[in-house]
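User: I've been trying to design a sequence by hand for this structure and keep getting stuck. Would you show me what you'd pick, starting by listing the structure so we're on the same page?

Assistant: Good idea, let's start from the same input. This is the structure you sent:
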């Protein structure tokens, strides 16, 4: 079977496509044939060596595919079931803790850039009905992070306002989930062309953050204050995110697209009585709830482009350009 491996020190030019022998499931395990994966910034950091991984680590946290064999003692899955990976295979339910979040697919343990993998039966969930493998592969990292941020942590309700930033996989799924929940969505982007596409996807107001560097003030005036800000730019956006937020609003800190550190205007932060929650993905239980919700609301993630497994490095190079809208996937 084919697999991609990260060499010592990483580097896109050095990613290796290798042939490995197909594993067999043991007691309590399943054999999954992965059919698709999707690219996340975390995968990129492991591939280029910024997040160090063991030499030969198979990257990619997201996978969707078919159960092709079950080991002894497995009764929740059968051959032919369509499943997707869980970002933290040890975080089944409840609050996060150090033990539950020790292992991430593609970092401390092998990920999904491989044709066949043996996993504990609890390390996957079902995929939503009528989803392609590529669509399902967008959910375990980006989709679940959005679900946890807006639904589990912020308690988004119909009629609330939500701010999403940029047009990457997390932001576009946040826009779709917020619209499906009956929220009013404000979005930012660097490009007028992408602004039109955001509007076509249901964004109520779109601001070009390159043309309007004080976009947080503008959005605050337009909206009267945002109930739930999905902050993805980190150092580049937090100041304006705080300006955009309503008194009593939530800021969900998810990403660092614009930098790891930045300044916070503390008087404005406490004057507005904001809640800020930093999150990293979610549990298997939350992923099951996300799948149930999608089976009812029917939202489908936007897959910008699909690459074959062997072209993972090219897929990351495309991600580097920022030309995409939604998710970049691997299909194999
Ligand atoms: N905490 C977690 O669990 C978790 C989970 C998933 C992702 N993340 C993080 O969330 C962030 C987004 O991930 P993603 O997969 O959606 O990334 P992505 O698909 O690579 O998104 C890239 C897009 O973000 C926008 N962008 C870039 N710099 C920006 C800035 N300074 N301000 C506003 N928008 C900017 C651009 O859109 P425009 O061209 O439209 O401006 C760009 O095309 C990353 O930092 C990632 O590491 C965190």
């Amino acid at each position: 079977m084919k697999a991609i491996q990260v060499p010592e020190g990483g580097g896109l030019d050095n990613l290796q496509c290798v042939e490995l022998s197909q594993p067999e499931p043991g007691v309590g395990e399943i054999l999954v044939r992965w059919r698709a994966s999707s690219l996340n910034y975390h995968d990129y950091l492991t591939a280029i060596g910024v997040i160090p991984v063991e030499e030969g680590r198979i990257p990619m946290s997201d996978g969707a595919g078919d159960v092709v064999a079950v080991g002894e003692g497995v009764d929740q899955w059968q051959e032919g079931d369509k499943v997707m990976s869980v970002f933290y295979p040890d975080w089944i339910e409840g609050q996060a803790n150090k033990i539950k979040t020790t292992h991430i697919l593609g970092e401390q343990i092998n990920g999904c850039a491989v044709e066949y993998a043996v996993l504990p039966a609890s390390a996957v969930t079902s995929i939503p009905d009528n989803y392609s493998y590529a669509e399902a592969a967008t959910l375990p990292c980006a989709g679940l992070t959005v679900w946890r941020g807006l639904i589990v942590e912020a308690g988004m309700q119909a009629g609330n306002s939500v701010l999403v930033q940029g047009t990457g996989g997390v932001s576009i799924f946040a826009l779709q989930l917020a619209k499906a929940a009956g929220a009013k969505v404000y979005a930012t982007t660097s490009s007028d062309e992408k602004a039109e596409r955001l509007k076509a996807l249901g964004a109520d107001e779109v601001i070009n953050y390159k043309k309007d560097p004080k976009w947080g003030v503008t959005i605050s005036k337009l909206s009267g204050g945002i109930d739930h800000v999905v902050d993805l730019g980190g150092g580049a956006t937090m100041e304006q995110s705080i300006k955009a937020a309503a008194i009593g609003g939530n800021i969900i800190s998810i990403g660092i697209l614009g930098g790891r550190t930045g300044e916070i205007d503390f008087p404005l932060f406490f004057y507005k009585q904001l809640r800020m929650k930093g999150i990293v993905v979610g549990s298997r239980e939350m992923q099951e709830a996300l799948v149930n919700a999608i089976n009812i609301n029917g939202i489908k993630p936007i897959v910008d482009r699909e690459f074959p497994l062997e072209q993972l490095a090219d897929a990351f190079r495309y991600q580097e350009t920022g030309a995409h809208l939604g998710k970049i996937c691997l299909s194999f």
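That's my pick for every position. To get oriented when you compare it with your attempt: The longest strand covers residues 29-38. The chain is about 30% helix and 25% strand.
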